[in-house]
Amino acid sequence: MLDFDLAEIYQVETRVLNQAVKRNPKRFPPDFMFQLSKKEWNSMSSQFVMTSRTKRPKTAYPLAFTEHGATMLSSVLRSDIAIDASILIVRAFVAVRQLVLNPPSDRITELEKQVIELKAYFEDVFTDQNDINEDTRMQLELLNESLAALQVKHKELNKPRTPVGFRMD
């Protein structure tokens, strides 16, 4: 979160918040807070309208606080609002983390999973069916060859025979 957002939550001026941070540098290591670069600030400020941008000196870029930095601010500001806001911020960060780690499963997600499972099942079934069809085709070819051989034998066995016995003209 940026310094002016936290200042609004803690109901203090941004400069008061930044002064408290500067007076307690040991409480805000780099993984708790950092200052935005000019490039970061310009790319962010083009995405949303901020009234604080006009009040901020052109060379001063906002401080960005992590979950731990936002929590540490309550110990620096020492007001009831700061403590209450800190608790709410920690809860918000924890809720966001839970959402990222355990996204809610909704009906659409469940249906997507089922469709994917059905697709996989049908692919298996069609693959098996194609295998069976290939086997069946081979068996039918063998049957046709056998029948053709039997027909040839049958023709040979059923040739007209020369009659045996007496002839009467």
Describe this structure in words.
- The protein is mainly alpha-helical and 169 residues long.
- The chain has 2 domains: 3-101, no CATH class; 105-158.
- The protein has 7 helices and 2 strands.
- The chain has helices at residues 3-10, 14-23, 38-45, 52-55, 67-77, 80-101, 107-157, and strands at 33-35, 63-65.
- The protein has a two-stranded antiparallel ribbon with strand order 1-2.
- Helix 1 packs across helix 2 (14-23) and helix 5 runs antiparallel to helix 6.
- It is rod-shaped.
- The N and C termini lie far apart (124 Å).
- The model has no long low-confidence stretch (mean pLDDT 81).
Task: Please tell me the total number of domains.
Answer: 2
Series of secondary-structure elements, N-terminal to C-terminal: HHEHHEHHH
Major sheet strand order = 1-2
Query: Can you count the beta strands?
Result: 2
**Percent strand:** under 5%
Helix-strand category: mainly alpha
Number of helices: 7
How many angstroms separate the termini?
124 Å
The stretches of 5 or more residues where confidence is low (pLDDT under 50) are: none
Report the radius of gyration as a whole number of Å: 42 Å
Range of helix content: 55-70%
List the helices and strands and how they pair.
Elements: H1 3-10, H2 14-23, E1 33-35, H3 38-45, H4 52-55, E2 63-65, H5 67-77, H6 80-101, H7 107-157
Antiparallel strand pairs: 1-2
Helix pairs in contact: 1-2, 5-6
Structure at a glance:
The chain has about 170 residues and is mostly helical. About 65% of the residues lie in helices and about 5% in strands. The chain has a two-stranded antiparallel sheet with strand order 1-2.
